[in-house]
Prior knowledge:
- The protein is of the alpha/beta class.
- The chain has a single domain, classed as Vaccinia Virus protein VP39 (Rossmann fold, 3-Layer(aba) Sandwich).
- It is about 30% helix and about 30% strand.
- It contains seven helices and nine strands, in the order αααββαβαβαββαβββ.
- The protein has helices at about 5-10, 10-25, 30-40, 70-80, 100-105, 115-130, 165-170, and strands spanning about 60, 65, 85-90, 105-115, 135-140, 150-155, 170-180, 185-195, 200-205.
Amino acid sequence: MNTRNGIGMTSQRTRLRMIERLREQGIEDEAVLAAMFEVPRHLFVDEALASRAYDDVSLPINFNQTISRPYIVARMIEVLRAGKPLNRVLEIGTGCGYQAAVLAQVAKEVYTVERVQPLYERARRQLRDMKLRNVSARHADGGIGLPEAAPFDGIIMAAAAPTLPGVLREQLAVGGRMALPLGTQEQWLHRVERDAGGFRETRLEPVKFVPLLTGKA
Ligand code: SAH
């Protein structure tokens, strides 16, 4: 039987199986795969769902929000890294904090913002318990980015906007990248790259995210 601390979920074997599946799904960046192996995903979901934590599904985390499925977490971080080390990163939509914890393995500094107060508080506690000292969590509307910590080498948006918010783009460092879902009914993962000449936007693959909302809750 799987219990929270039972062998089934917490064993390296369960996580290794997830890594193998990510490889089959096309994730190639070894640093991302190592980071996904490192972070115990079951600690970020309700106990009742822990036995499904390593399945490739999104799971509910209360307040109508979800923890993204492993593939999409890995894919977005792979897009952000583009094979290079990351210095300062912003995540919009902390949710349960799982993606922030994975980002903390591959970036020097992680800023993550969540608009829903109870989610923010729970994620902050979880990240602190895991002693991830390079993560700074904020309770804020991430739709305007985090101007006081900009510019960022990478920005990940974990909620979908109809179109690319211009203020976010401006908080990208030259040489930086952004991974974000865009669209309403039909959503696509997009990559935005900034170089000295300007911005380049590429549509990558269809995705399904909760909508980016405005204001704090
Ligand atoms: N990154 C999470 C997934 C979060 S789901 C993971 O690791 O699985 C998306 C989150 O974005 C939700 O928690 C939602 O409340 C939050 N969100 C939506 N609009 C937002 C906004 N404008 N600013 C900050 N967070 C927002």
